Amino acid sequence: MKEKVKNILKILDEHYPNVRVALNYTNPLELLIATILSAQCTDERVNQITPYLFKKYPTAKDYATADLKTLEEDIKPTGFYKNKAKHIKECCQVLVEKYHGQVPANLEILTKLPGIGRKTANVVLGNAFDIPGIVVDTHVRRVAKRLGLTKHQDALKIEKDLMQLIPKEKWTKFSLQLTWHGRRICKARKPQCNKCPLHKWCDEYQKV
Asked: PROSITE patterns, per this entry (predicted)?
């Protein structure tokens, strides 16, 4: 397995050398909000509404004191807007009350905020604070399983499996590389195995 992981990492570095999160942001709060909005929504759609949103609500206090119905309307195009607006408002109220309106660079604290799971927390920590974390999104789950890096379906178990296999300093980059690979080549319905540079190391491909 060590040899396999080493080769997978080398190939990913060759094909996705300068990956970055697809959400646009300029500070940790913006990335936190954008990541909440990206649930069940494309990053492209989120990026369409955030320039207006970030201008209108530049601080955590602005979200915390926002009229809920207005906030719902502002984020409506991202879907599930009632839940998302509620989580954003409540989360920012806690940030204002306990953390001077700043996003804490701490996994345990972040995952206790309303509406923030490990995935969102790790996106923010890895990309806004350079604190390594494995982000298990739908693409990471699919690609990791196909490659044979995990047998699990549960996000936390997948995260733990990958944390044991991948060197810590590569966690954030590796997650982004798998996400980009899942979007471009290892797609859910029609994976382009003939184009895939990883097929030699892919359990799913070897079965076929």
From this structure: ENDONUCLEASE_III_2 (PS01155)
Q: What is the mean pLDDT of residues 52-58?
A: 98
Listed residues 128, 155, 173: the one ending a domain: 128
> Is residue 203 within 8 Å of residue 146, measured between CB atoms?
yes
* 112 & 159 share domain: no
**137 counts as catalytic:** yes
The one catalytic residue among 74, 89, 137, 161: 137
Q: CA 164 to CA 139: how far, in whole Å?
A: 19
The answer to whether the predicted template modeling score (pTM) of the entire model surpasses 0.85 is yes
Active-site residue identified among 74, 84, 89, 119: 119
Predicted confidence at residue 205, as pLDDT, reads 86
